[in-house]
Specification:
6% of the residues lie in helices and 51% in strands. With 65 residues, it is mainly beta. It has a single domain, classed as Nucleic acid-binding proteins (OB fold (Dihydrolipoamide Acetyltransferase, E2P), Beta Barrel), CATH 2.40.50. β1 (2-9) and β2 (13-18) form a beta hairpin.
Length: 65
Amino acid sequence: MRGTVVKMLPDSTFEVELESGFQLLAKPSGRMRRGRGIRVLPGDVVDVEVSTYDPTRGRIVWRYR
C-alpha cells in the first residue's frame, strides 16, 4: 500500500498516512536499515506492508524519489 510519511518518531519508527487516509506506525525493512544509504524523511512517498496481525503496524519496503 502506498502512503506518505507524516512524522519521524524515536527508534526509527515513522507515522505513515496511507492513500485511504488510515494512519499507522511503520519501521524500515531490514534491507533499508543495512547501510544502503536510504533515508526516509517526512513527506516521502513510501510503499508499506501492513501487518496481518496488527493493522496499526507496518514495514516500509520502498521509498519513491
